[in-house]
Design goal:
alpha/beta; Rossmann fold; 2 domains; seven-stranded parallel sheet
Length: 578
């Protein structure tokens, strides 16, 4: 198992730089003021910030000691009462960045709604609500409720009627409650748009603006987004006042400890390559990303048929099904989660060892979100991308956008995968030998050996064969897509050839040409003679026989037009004789 861990952790770490360049399609924000940071040195520890001791106690219980970059900058500004525009990627601690100031501003004695958080997906709403609940663990009488579609609305109405200070919900369901007057906004002090760019991509802009128009003008607003397209800037200009713009610098938006690689393969081999990579590296918890719901379903069924513990996650599943899948993945009952980008957006899953891009993402930004699922909390991780044909161009685009180099690797050999699988079986068997009483099993095997006349080694080999499955053969490497990569290193291109080599090559080429070149050598003359002989009657290409038509058609010679049309051709007009 140590060897397996070494395979997962080997190599240097890769730091992702997500600076947006002119080549990207994302519009950079153009705030009226320069990006603002907290005045003075930003606090490195939660204890350095001016927050309630009960919140500090909750943060300590969650195991956090130092702030993330977005928290260092956002918490002091939000506590000071300013509006905030925060640009940071998923998984950088944004929930605590707005959750801590939000909790501190709440009045426990007021049972009315005081804060609203809008999220793009049900999963993100549930996770953000749970995170805020943990931060408010020792702030008694502060109630947090997630509101989202897919859950019975009457159940939510009952919870709302009991009094809730903080709601975390999706725009559509929040709008439903506002129409029913089960959510009243007159006492709201703070509103947060989390993953704002994703909400706009999902078509929630009209709902968001309707909600913003209904809440009091005197309130604090924070907006967090991984990117800043023009549509988001329009919202900030319309609904925020003197907002402080915070941007986590490229050095801070990092995906540390993630080793990235891609594999150029044939499309028909994608399933087999995915399985072989998982068998070789043996990740305990794996995320596999596909571009379509249909592919998620197809791949999950394929992996299950190969005895992998895999489940699919996409938008067509009911809320109950999604909850079951996520519960299985978090508990370890399911080791492989296959998902689309939208379904996985906002999922906060710890302990992911490897991310597989079964399909190269259509949107370059999704690549950063995908591989950001691993390499968290100081753990090392890997990302694998399967590339077919022209998808190599997308890899080049991702490298330019992220300012990084993704290393190309070859699929492990069949012998290496077989060795790793055998080692895993041996380790599993040894763990059983060390932890359980085998006396009864040994007695049963001894009786079977006498009855069926086989040895213990033969029996162990049969069990291993059944566990290992069919013998593997090496997968043929995909032919490099770029012509410049198809040339072997031992072959010199024309640009690298020496002048002498070029001159000799020209001479050889002239030798092979016929009598059409003046000044040819003796070989040219001989070749010319053979060429003239080939024109004689009864020879084609210097060989006995009729003309070329006879040789290829098997019909008597004559005019080609006559042979194919069945008509006699007229005599060609003769030019004037000089």
């Amino acid at each position: 198992m140590n060897e397996t861990n070494e395979r997962m952790n080997e190599g240097t770490t890769v730091t992702e730089d997500t600076t947006v360049t002119e080549e990207s399609t994302v519009t950079e924000p153009m705030p009226e003021t320069e990006p603002t940071e907290a005045t003075g040195p930003a606090p490195a520890s939660y204890h350095d910030a001016e927050m309630d001791n009960r919140i500090l106690r909750a943060v300590g219980g969650m195991g956090f000691e130092t702030m993330t970059p977005i928290q260092e900058q956002a918490i002091p500004i939000l506590m000071a009462g300013h509006d905030v525009i925060g640009q940071a990627q998923t998984g950088t601690g944004k929930t605590a960045a707005f959750g801590i100031p939000m909790i501190q501003k709440m009045d426990p004695e007021d049972r009315r709604l005081q804060a609203l958080v809008l999220c793009p997906t049900r999963e993100l709403a549930v996770q953000a609500a749970e995170e805020i609940r943990k931060l408010a663990k020792y702030m008694h009488n502060i109630k947090v409720l997630p509101i989202y579609g897919g859950q019975e609305i009457y159940r939510q109405i009952k919870a709302l009627s009991a009094g809730v200070q903080i709601i975390v919900g999706t725009p559509g369901r929040v709008m439903d409650h506002m129409r029913r007057r089960t959510i009243k906004t007159e006492a709201i002090k703070m509103i947060v748009l989390d993953e704002a760019d994703e909400m706009l991509n999902m078509g929630f802009r009209e709902d968001i603006e309707t909600i913003l128009q209904d809440i009091p003008a005197e309130r604090q607003m924070a907006l967090f987004s991984a990117t800043m397209p023009q549509a988001i800037l329009d919202i900030t200009h319309e609904y925020q006042k003197d907002a402080k713009y915070i941007r986590v610098t490229p050095k801070e938006i990092t995906i540390d400890l993630v080793k990235q690689a891609y594999y150029r393969i044939q499309r028909k081999d994608k399933n087999e390559v995915l399985c072989r990579l998982m068998d070789f590296y043996q990740p305990k918890r794996t995320l596999v990303f596909c571009n379509t719901k249909r592919m998620v379903d197809s791949l999950s069924e394929e992996l299950k048929s190969r005895n992998y513990q895999a489940e699919g996650l996409h938008g067509d599943l009911s809320q109950h099904q999604r909850d079951n899948v996520m519960g299985m993945f978090r508990s370890g009952t399911c080791q492989i989660l296959i998902a689309t980008d939208v379904a996985a957006r906002g999922l906060d899953i710890t302990g992911v060892d490897a991310v597989f891009n079964y399909d190269v993402p259509e949107d370059i930004e999704y690549y950063v979100h995908r591989i950001g699922r691993t390499g968290r909390a100081g753990r090392k991780g890997r990302s694998f991308t399967l590339v077919c044909g022209r998808e190599i161009y997308k890899i080049r685009d991702i490298e330019r956008f992220c300012h990084t180099k993704i290393k190309e690797r070859t699929v492990p050999k069949a012998a290496d995968i077989t060795r790793v699988k055998a080692d895993v079986i041996f380790l599993e068997a040894k763990a059983v030998m060390d932890s359980q009483n085998l006396d009864e099993a040994i007695a049963r095997i001894s009786r079977a050996m006498e009855q069926y006349e086989f040895t213990a080694i033969e029996l162990a080999a049969a069990f291993m064969k059944e566990k290992m499955g069919d013998e593997l053969t090496d997968i043929k490497d995909e032919k490099p897509f770029f012509k410049s990569e198809r040339r072997g290193d031992d072959k010199r291109s024309k640009s690298n050839a020496r002048p002498y080599d070029v001159r000799k090559a020209n001479e050889k080429r002239n030798d092979k040409r016929g009598d059409g070149h003046r000044g040819g050598n003796e070989r040219n003359k001989e070749h010319s003679h053979r060429g003239n002989a080939a024109k004689a009657p009864g020879k084609v290409f210097g060989k006995p026989g009729g003309n070329a038509f006879e040789k290829f058609s098997g019909k008597p010679g004559g005019n080609a037009f006559e042979k194919f049309s069945g008509k006699k051709s007229g005599k060609p007009s003769q030019g004037k004789k000089k």
